[in-house]
Amino acid sequence: MKKLLLFALAFVYNINLFAQKTDTLSITLEQVQYAYPIKYFKIQIEGQDLRMAYMDVQPSAEANGRTVTLFHGKNFGGYYWTNVIKVLSANGYRVIIPDQIGFGKSSKAFIHYSFHQMAKWNSQLLDSLKINKSIILGHSMGGMLATRFALLFPEKTEKLVLENPIGLEDYRAFVPYVNTQQQYQTELKTTAASVKKYYQNSYFTEWRPDYDELVRIAGGVTFSADYPRWAKVAALTFTMIYEQPVVHEFANLKVPALLLIGKEDKTIVGKGLLSTEDQKKYGQYKLLGKATAAKIPSAKLVEFDNVGHIPHLEKPEEFMKALIGNL
């Protein structure tokens, strides 16, 4: 009986090792195939040499002379923009898709993370590509970055497009403060299973099998021996989001803006720190979309019914029609 139990335990251990080996991804996503070739933009900051990964996709139809730059959300990288890139390219746009420092295939640096600094890096990237002006489209955390970019570089921003951006509220006003070390301990507890549960409960109104690829990537890095570095960077960028709001500056925007909002989104940064009652009071995008559009001069709001945090994946045809029709 004892031998049988030991055999069973060994079998389970080996199965777990196999699963870890086959599911493990490096924290710079070397095993993740992006839809287009990756290039790198060199950055030096705080005595460190870093690499910012990006894709530069030329128009697949007659070029219209315009460029769209896509800023990803906190839990993503350039890989989840593929369908948007294809449609934009087919409509004559050049498309630039950076993985921000700390995300995707870019360096996972221990630095002070700042939306101001990120915006400057993206400005320098566009300068290096000889792009004087671009439409800036930001999703989720990328919406906060896109807003900061437009505030800092209005002359380089043809139009600001915000897809379910976070930061439409000042989280400092109602989310309890946790320091970076505390958040790091929370990030270390992340598993592939917890990633899927979070995505199912937070991002989509109804789960589809094709969303599993998002989980495979975000969950795969948790098996890496370098995951603590990923977790530390995730904690540092959580602090950045919490401490560097843009909500108070929407009225200062001087460029045309388009808001593409899934009305069923209920995203709150630090939601797990709130009571059930407070979770229902905040993060209501069916209200936040309208309130934000009213703050931004020259803003247009397009809302999507029965859509959550990522309209370009949940209702792609509806999203693309609204996007192309308003560019």
TrEMBL record:
UniProt keyword Signal present: yes
InterPro entries on file: AB_hydrolase_1, AB_hydrolase_fold, AB_hydrolase_sf, Epox_hydrolase-like
SUPFAM superfamilies for this protein: alpha/beta-Hydrolases (SSF53474)
Coiled-coil regions listed in the entry: none
Domain (AB hydrolase-1) ranges: 68-316
Keywords: Hydrolase, Signal
Pfam families: Abhydrolase_1 (PF00561)
GO-annotated molecular function: hydrolase activity
Position of the signal peptide: 1-19
Organism: Pedobacter helvus
Protein name: Alpha/beta fold hydrolase
PANTHER family: HYDROLASE, PUTATIVE (AFU_ORTHOLOGUE AFUA_2G14860)-RELATED, MONOACYLGLYCEROL LIPASE
